[in-house]
Amino acid sequence: MKKIQIINGPNLNLLGKREPTVYGSASFESYLDELRARYPQCEIAYYQSNIEGEMINKIHEVGFDYDGIIMNAGAYTHTSIALHDAIKAVNTPVVEVHISNVHARESFRHVSMISAACKGVILGFGLDSYRLALEALI
Ligand code: DQA
């Protein structure tokens, strides 16, 4: 059984309510139910935090044990050297995901501080970005 950790960053607890034209109207919890049903061969753990340090603690906690981390760092993607360093510090491969196509949005979203530390990046496919990342890790 593969152990996969999903980490969602700031404001992603509001998926379904937050800017639905950009991020869709489904809650992450309902999407997660579908994902777990579709991939019974994976144990999919989920963690969300609005706090950068808590995300770093979660990376440290699972990053020597789990088979993969799928991370949507939200706006910390564009600012956090500390998340970059945390990803580099662990063994578990991290796939960076984004729901929206950040390159089709404001220029401040075009830069990612974490991409270079990640195994790969999937973005722009709505919530399906998470499933595509899971496929990549499997
Ligand atoms: C996001 C894109 C980020 O620019 C933004 O700050 C988010 C969500 C996405 O999934 O499209 O919070 O990571």
From TrEMBL:
Keyword Amino-acid biosynthesis, does the record have it?
yes
Where along the chain is the active site annotated?
A: Y23 (proton acceptor), H98 (proton donor)
Sorted keywords for this record are: Amino-acid biosynthesis, Aromatic amino acid biosynthesis, Lyase
Supply one GO BP term: amino acid biosynthetic process
**Gene3D superfamilies, per database record:** Dehydroquinase, class II (3.40.50.9100)
Q: Annotated Gene Ontology MF terms?
A: 3-dehydroquinate dehydratase activity
The residues that the entry says bind substrate are: N72, H78, D85, I99, S100, R109
- What EC number(s) would the UniProt record show? 4.2.1.10
The signal peptide stretch is none
Q: Name one Pfam family in it.
A: DHquinase_II
Question: Which InterPro entries does this one have?
Answer: DHquinase_II, DHquinase_II_CS, DHquinase_II_sf
Kindly list the residues the record flags as site (Transition state stabilizer): R18
Q: Which pathway does the database say it acts in?
A: Metabolic intermediate biosynthesis; chorismate biosynthesis; chorismate from D-erythrose 4-phosphate and phosphoenolpyruvate: step 3/7
Q: Which reaction does it catalyse?
A: 3-dehydroquinate = 3-dehydroshikimate + H2O
* Assembly behavior: Homododecamer.
Q: Which family does it belong to?
A: Belongs to the type-II 3-dehydroquinase family.
Task performed by this protein: Catalyzes a trans-dehydration via an enolate intermediate.
Which protein are we looking at?
3-dehydroquinate dehydratase
Per the UniProt entry, what species is this protein from, by scientific name?
Answer: Parabacteroides gordonii MS-1 = DSM 23371
Q: What is the lineage of its organism?
A: Bacteria, Pseudomonadati, Bacteroidota, Bacteroidia, Bacteroidales
